[in-house]
Design brief:
Layout lengths: L1 H140 L6 H6 L44 H13 L3 H14 L6 H14 L3 H14 L6 H14 L3 H14 L4 H13 L1 H4 L3
Helix pairs in contact: 1-3, 1-9, 3-4, 4-5, 5-6, 5-7, 6-7, 7-8, 8-9
Length: 326
Amino acid sequence: MKLKNFAAAAVVALMLTANASPAFAVAKEIIQLQVQVQDLADRLARMQQSMDQNMGAIRVLVTQSTDNVNRLADATEAMQKSIAQQNMSSAAKIDQVSGQIQALNDTIDELRARLEQTNQQLAQIEAHQQSILAQQAQQQTQPPEQPQDSQRANPDTATTPPATAKPGAPPAVATAKPPAGVVAGASKPSAALPAPPASTLYNNALRDYNAARYELAFSQFQDYLRYYPATDLAGNAQYYIADIEYRAGNFQNAIEDYDKVLERYPGGTKAAAAQLKKGYALLELGRRDDGVRELNSLIQRYPRSIEATQARARLRKLGPEKSAGH
């Protein structure tokens, strides 16, 4: 019995031993797989941590770059505003200087007209003095008048008595002989009013123009051109006529009168100003290509003039595609 029990126990032990070997191998593989999985998880965790750190650094860099870009954009915008303000200020200064130069030219024209009037007055005074001196010299060279006694004795100068009328004849009626060139019984025609002096007419017109009395100045400048179309100031008068029309908004009439300045008085002091204002008038009428062409022509003809500077500023306002003169 003891041997049987011992054998049975041995068999059971062998069976248990046989069954335990595969189970132990499987558990070992599972443990190794778990170790590998844990190692992989650790690596993934470290990689995630590294990626988080890198992403944080990238976010910081992106934020810094965004801030730099924003500051650069703000600085660029501020610079653009500053440049725009400088351009506006420069344009305003150019317009102001142009206005001052225009006023100076007007003053010079007025002084020139006054000087011409003064020269005329001096010439008249000199002529009057020469006439007085000639009369005095003539009086000194004439012999003294004879007394009245000799005049009575002189038969040539004696007064002849009137003829005695015949008896029965009607008394003679004295008739006055009309002056030469005037027909008897004809009425004397009224003489036309003389033209005022050139300097006076121009100075009055310019004074009214500077005082913004444009209607009166316009009429006076027209009178000046009607009476004195060939003087040195005729081109100025024509320019002021066109400029008054430009100020009134009559741009088409202003263009025609500016053309008269350029065609009739090309060497005058108002030629450049007339071409500049003609370009402005064309732009006001919406004829941009013609206006740009006129301003570019002005720049080529008078490159160093103040009008050329104004033309360049106006072309910059129109944009780069317009300043090329296409």
